[in-house]
Task: structure prediction
Amino acid sequence: MAKVERFQDLRVWAAARELVKAVYEATASRGLSKDYALRDQMRRAAISVPSNIAEGFARRSNREFVQFLFIAKGSAAELQSQLYTALDLAYLDQDGFDRLSEDTEVLSKQLSRLISYLRTRAA
Result:
C-alpha cells in the first residue's frame, strides 16, 4: 500500500469531492435552486465532508484526524437527512435521490472504515 502524504491522495477525500460536485449540480436545478435555505444547507453539509477530511489530515495526529472524520460523518448524515427533505418536497425525483443517497451512504462507510483503521493503528 502506498503511503499517503497529502489529503488529496485519500480515496475518501476524492469521493467526497465528487459528492460535492453532484450536490451542486442537483441543487442548481428546478425548485431546489430557489429554496435558498435548503439549497445552501445541503451545499454546506456536502462541502463540510472533504473540508473536515483535509483539516483532520493536516493535524498530523491519528487522534485528531479521527475526530475530524467523525465530524465529516456527521455532515454526511446531515446531508442524507436533507436529501429526504428535498425528495419529500419533490425537489428531487426518486432516481436523483437514490443516486445521491447511495453516494452519501458509500462515503459514510468509507469514513467508518478509515476511522476503524486509524483507531487500530493508534492502539
In short: The two ends are 20 Å apart (CA to CA). The helical segments are 11-27, 36-58, 62-88, 94-122.
